[in-house]
Amino acid sequence: MKKTRNDLVCKCVAVAMVLGCMNSANAAVVYDNGPINGTAGNAVAISGGWDTSTSFTLSGATTFTGAQVALWATMGETPVSLAWSIGTTAFGSEVASGVAALSNTFVMDFIAFPTSYSIYESQFALSGTAGAGTYWVTLSNGLATAGSLDWDTNFGPSASATRNLGLGIAPINVPSQSFQVFGDPVAAVPEPASLAIWGLGGIGMAVAARRKRKQVA
After folding, report:
1. Of 72, 77, 172, 181, which residue is least crowded by CB atoms under 10 Å?
2. pLDDT tens across 148-196, in order?
């Protein structure tokens, strides 16, 4: 009978610990500014000295893992890389910044005069951690296989601005762009009571294992 009770204790504690670990979620979309609007013929430059910054909000503390943006390249070209930053104000970078290679999915060609474009959904890695609140993601130095990149304008809900400091052009407010931000929620620090329960669970497992060894002996 003791052996059965000890086995039951071990199983219950193990199940409790597994359920607790399930609170750690996989990377998910933490902000979505809407889909591609490629057929509207609107995009904003992120090459040739232009950088574009758009806002997004977080509902809770998040570790950034990546982003997806809609990019325009001259028809037949493919997006290659870009520079990115995240800050608390437009064009800020105090949260994180970097240069990223792009993974692309072709969406459509947009036929226009004098230039036609190939439009892609492009994903890249992000880093950094931020709490709940409003932030800005900025893209610049966009590079395609043989030219520049533009960021698809989809008139989403966020605020957006573009500038070219090299040309002396101060920030100009523009309609916002198509993008999604991915991340993992930051786990809350366990309360003392929770830590005590986990500690007791560990002790219970150790005691049960010791009793089982004695019975076998």
Report:
1. 172
2. 999 999 999 999 999 999 999 999 999 999 999 999 999 866 655 555 5
Only one residue has tokens 């800005």, namely: 136
Q: How far is CA 146 from its chain centroid?
A: 28
Parts of the chain with a pLDDT under 70: 1-26, 38-41, 188-217
With tokens 């990149």, the residue in question is 149
Q: Is the dihedral of CA 67, 72, 73, 77 positive or negative?
A: positive
**Centroid of chain to Cα 26:** 11
Each domain of the chain, given as residue ranges in start order, spans 2-24+189-216, 28-185
CA 3 to chain centre: 49
Cα angle: 106, vertex 108, 111; to 5 degrees: 135
Between 2-21 and 192-216, two packed helices, what is the crossing angle to 10 degrees? 150
Chain-centre distance for alpha carbon 74? 27
Query: What six digits make up the tokens of 121?
Result: 């959904």
Give the per-residue pLDDT at 112.
Answer: 84
Quickly count: other Cβ atoms within 10 Å of residue 125's Cβ: 14
CA 129 – CA 78 distance, rounded (Å): 30
What CA–CA distance (Å, rounded) separates 206 from 204?
Answer: 5
